[in-house]
Design goal:
Layout: E1 10-15, E2 18-23, H1 24-27, E3 32-35, H2 44-53, E4 58-60, E5 70-73, E6 88-91, E7 96-102, E8 106-112, E9 118-123, H3 125-129, H4 132-144, E10 151-155, E11 165-166, H5 168-175, H6 181-187, E12 188-191, E13 200-203, H7 205-215, E14 223-225, H8 240-243, E15 250-254
Parallel strand pairs: 4-7, 5-6, 10-14
Antiparallel strand pairs: 1-2, 2-3, 3-15, 6-9, 7-15, 8-9, 8-10, 11-13, 12-13
Helix pairs in contact: 4-7, 6-7
The structure holds zinc ion.
The site of zinc ion has 6 residues, from loops.
């Protein structure tokens, strides 16, 4: 298997037989992984194996609906149902990891170096337009008294602006939300492919999520991205744009560190 180069903040690894990427600054706080095609994650047992690879007893993953709804794993509370719908998952229970599945959409893993609480976020263009990353930061503040300046974020492999062309409808959807207009202008770049006269835009989902995190108070140097485009590394990552219904899913999984402190009042 060929492993494309990644920034110094990321490393390739094999944990419990699972080939994956991890983010070194995030690993200082807690265990997490971004999986590849090599782990098909089709059966319950596959997920048990993945939970074990990050040192958790179980993992919460739910129905993802391209929004910003949130679910929180709290101590001494029942685990949310796996039939629940959400794209922002938080955990403050060290035994319970949270995971998101993606094929081109942005998987974000967030850890609070102060409280030990974590979040996993699934942000395709709809979730990014809905501000899912911002919602995750706010939910960590509300539920675990997190300070945004303590958050470390890893942005996993996702479709890059090189391969992600969208129409004016997507630009309009972002402009209809509360984003700063000059930010939205920077996330979209005009492009006109040779075989169409239609005006298209290349969308930089990583830049959009990065800017949202920084605006929410996360220090720039604590947000790390792999820079890997899923559509350009089909041997390693599934890509919905390239494979449509045949695309599998990769996972981003993270568990709280052993000492979750400063529980909020919720
Ligand atoms: Zn690409």
């Amino acid at each position: 298997m060929f492993f494309p180069p990644v920034p110094d903040s990321f490393k390739w690894t094999t944990k419990a037989g699972i080939v994956a990427l991890y983010c070194q600054p995030l690993a200082v706080v807690t265990s997490h992984l971004f999986t590849t095609r090599q782990a098909p994650l089709l059966t319950k047992n596959d997920w048990v194996q993945l939970s074990a690879a990050v040192g958790a007893h179980e993992v919460l993953q739910v129905r993802q609906v391209h929004g910003s709804s949130t679910l929180v794993v709290q101590p001494k509370r029942p685990l949310p149902s796996c039939d629940s719908e959400a794209d922002v998952l938080l955990s403050g229970v060290p035994e319970v990891a949270v995971a998101v599945r993606s094929a081109d959409c942005v998987p974000l893993l967030i850890a609070d170096a102060g409280s030990g609480a974590v979040a996993a976020v699934h942000a395709g263009w709809r979730g990014t337009a809905a501000g899912a990353a911002t919602v995750a930061v706010e939910s960590l503040q509300r539920n675990f008294s997190s300070n945004p300046s303590d958050l470390i974020v890893a942005i996993g492999p996702c479709i890059g602006p090189c391969c992600y062309k969208v129409g004016m409808d997507v630009v309009n959807a972002f402009q209809a939300q509360q984003h700063l207009h000059h930010n939205v202008d920077q996330w979209f770049h005009k492009t006109r492919p040779l075989n169409t006269s239609k005006q298209l835009f290349s969308l930089d989902l990583v830049a959009a999520n990065f800017d949202q995190l920084v605006l929410a108070g996360v220090p720039e140097n604590q947000v790390h991205a792999t820079g890997l485009c899923t559509a350009m590394h089909l041997d390693l990552f599934p890509s919905f744009r390239s494979e449509r219904e045949m695309a599998g899913r990769m996972a981003g999984i993270i568990k709280p560190s052993c000492s979750v402190k400063r529980q909020g009042s919720v």
